[in-house]
Design a protein that fits this description.
Elements lengths: L1 E6 L5 E7 L1 H4 L5 H15 L58 H17 L3 E4 L9 H11 L4 E5 L4 H6 L6 E5 L5 H6 L2 E5 L2 H9 L1
Parallel strand pairs: 1-3, 3-6, 4-5, 4-6
Antiparallel strand pairs: 1-2
Length: about 210
């Protein structure tokens, strides 16, 4: 196990904690990370563009005019794609862009993403933020003390003060342990874990 300093909101070391090697010291494979990140980004695509075919368009099924003798080309439906207001030929239809990835691969990629932060020395642990109210300035002072920016903060509880205080600070995102994912870990330069989340992460990934 690797020992990591636990900091307080003033940026001072208060203790040490152990990070399990099976999670934070996993060999990194870029192909696995790429596969999972690609899957996450694809899942965000809505795929809601759609048009109506002649079968979906509302309209009368009555023949427009008699077959012969009018001088016009024969026509049988007002819903024909050749007519205004008719259906669309080969138009877009609703689809899913989701790329399926096995659960074991997702779990492995999450371990690799955490290991990459550990390897780059961009993983930090804090005992608690201790924010008494929703104050962006207070959180900004804490981050200045820690000398951290471009930061993903992981909390194990629904900390409303922390979440709302972070919204106006650029390049800062707060998520709970349950929402920890590969894309967010790799997107931000630094990763800050509240000390109590380590046990939850270990329970989720071990």
């Amino acid at each position: 196990m690797a020992a990591v300093d636990v900091l307080n909101s003033s940026g001072k070391k208060v203790s040490e904690t152990q990070l399990p090697d099976q999670i934070f010291n996993t060999p990194i494979k870029k192909s696995v990370l790429h596969q999972v990140v690609r899957s996450q980004l694809a899942a965000k695509r809505e795929g809601t563009a759609a048009s109506k075919t002649r079968a979906m368009v509302k309209g009368s099924t009555k023949k427009l005019f008699r077959q012969k003798g009018t001088g016009n080309a024969r026509a049988g439906s007002v819903k024909s794609p050749l007519r205004k207001g008719g259906g669309v030929i080969f138009g877009p239809s609703q689809r899913s862009f989701a790329i399926k990835v096995p659960k074991k691969v997702k779990k492995l990629a999450l371990k690799m993403a955490l290991s990459s932060k550990m390897e780059d020395n961009t993983l930090f642990v804090i005992d608690d933020f201790n924010l008494e109210a929703i104050k962006t300035k207070e959180l900004a002072n804490v981050l200045n003390s820690l000398e951290l920016s471009d930061l993903l903060i992981v909390s194990d509880t629904e900390d409303t003060n922390l979440l709302l205080s972070s919204r106006n600070i650029p390049d800062i995102k707060v998520i709970r342990t349950e929402g920890l994912n590969v894309y967010d870990i790799l997107k931000f330069k630094n990763l800050l874990l509240v000390e109590s989340t380590i046990q939850n992460i270990q329970g989720r990934l071990s």
